Amino acid sequence: MPLHIGIIGAGIVGLAHAWSAAERGHHVTVFERSPRASGASIRNFGMVWPIGQPAGDCYSTAMLSRERWLRLAHHARIWVNPCGSIHLAHRRDEWDVLREFHEVAPQHGYECEFLSPTEVLQRTPAANPEGLLGGLFSPTELCVNPPATIRAMPRWLSAEFDVRFEFQITITAVESGRVNNAAGRSWNFDRVIVCGGAEVQTLFPQLLSESGIKLCKLQMMKTNSQLLGWRIGPHLASGLTMRHYHNFDICGSLGALKRRVAEETPELDRFGIHVMASQNDAGEVILGDSHEYDAEIEPFDKSVIDELMLRELRAVIRLPDWTIAERWHGIYAKYPTAPVFSAEPLPGVFVRTGTGGAGMTMSFGLAELDWEQWQ
Ligand SMILES: Cc1cc2nc3c(=O)[nH]c(=O)nc-3n(C[C@H](O)[C@H](O)[C@H](O)COP(=O)(O)OP(=O)(O)OC[C@H]3O[C@@H](n4cnc5c(N)ncnc54)[C@H](O)[C@@H]3O)c2cc1C
């Protein structure tokens, strides 16, 4: 039987739930406090990154998401580039981790290819050949344009499934079967899903503060559009990135890499810096990132972080035009022990947040798993 579903938040988690619910024939209304979504979901790299997920359930959820991204591209005519990714090795310990990962990858369900320096350069003009030892290509990663996608999806959901969007409405209270705003207006639903991202102080603040969720600030940059149709090819990640994603935890050689970085460049650990690059449909290259948590988060961005990121990026990639057109930061909520924080604080009221640095990768799959269980 079709239900009336209220969703709070028009970021990727809210939109993923709206899509999965609407496909099942439910009547969906999405509330968003801003005139258009402006949170983590429009501030990210646009990397759908299954390779970064630990083997098993997380990886299969990421692959389910991937399938849905491709479906969205087809039905909603949203730009999704199945570009894959290359992790680059410019240091011996990075090469060791990639080699080890490549050996065990098939038994964990990952599909990847070890590349010589020449093969890396055949796939991307952007790898810095100086000191390049090799790379690991994975075919599963996608590139999306976050601001364009997150703002186009509501239009498509409305047109295709009659999903209602109530922008500029902040929900200040939720009860079973009802949501309210500060002006005293209320809406009734059979089920409510709270997808407020890093806004953890308005709805269920005690639940969220006791959940172990951390807030994390990341600094990002974007270049001008590269000239003459120059394309990066796959997403690129430096050796530093192997410290960041948990898929590499299965490699015994990772410890040596982490120790070397900690001893040689402690400033990178200090600001949680690892570097990656993706290129959107406008030809702009998105560069990042850094990680500062909870009490470390300041409203002001640190130029030292941008300089360190650019130093590390220039060591591993080459771009025709390094002019930085935009700088920004984003804040995400991270639940440390699962891909998403899930709770039902009141009957029929579900909280879904804390997707950390993998919300674009995981949300479509996570929402599908929820709706398979709820129906
Ligand atoms: C810089 C950066 C880079 C990243 N890179 C990647 C990447 O490449 N790949 C990847 O997979 N993930 C990446 N991530 C992570 C990903 O962006 C997040 O996990 C994801 O966007 C979180 O989505 P969300 O819907 O929970 O939050 P949000 O996008 O923040 O959306 C929550 C929405 O809820 C609204 N809201 C909150 N409270 C209320 C209320 N009471 N009433 C009405 N509206 C409300 C907010 O206005 C907001 O629009 C990155 C994150 C950042 C910050």
Tell me what the structure shows.
It is a single chain. This protein is α+β, with helices and mostly antiparallel strands. It contains 10 helices and 21 strands. Strands 5, 6, 7, 14, 15, 16, 17, 18 and 19 form a 9-stranded mixed sheet that branches. It has a 6-stranded mixed sheet with strand order 9-2-1-13-21-20, covered by helices on one side. The longest helix is centred in the first third of the chain and has 20 residues, at 57-76. It is globular, with a radius of gyration of 21 Å. Flavin-adenine dinucleotide (FAD) binds next to helix 1, strand 2, strand 14, strand 19 and helix 10.
Write the layout of secondary structure elements.
Elements: E1 4-8, H1 12-23, E2 27-32, E3 47-48, H2 57-76, E4 80-81, E5 85-89, H3 92-104, E6 113-115, H4 117-123, E7 134-138, E8 142-144, H5 146-161, E9 164-167, E10 171-175, E11 178-181, E12 186-188, E13 191-194, H6 205-209, E14 214-225, E15 235-237, H7 254-264, H8 266-270, E16 276-279, E17 284-288, E18 292-293, H9 303-316, E19 324-334, E20 341-346, E21 349-353, H10 359-374
Parallel strand pairs: 1-2, 1-13, 2-9, 5-15, 13-21
Antiparallel strand pairs: 3-8, 4-8, 5-7, 6-7, 10-11, 11-12, 14-17, 14-18, 14-19, 15-16, 16-17, 20-21
Helix pairs in contact: 1-5, 1-10, 2-10, 3-7
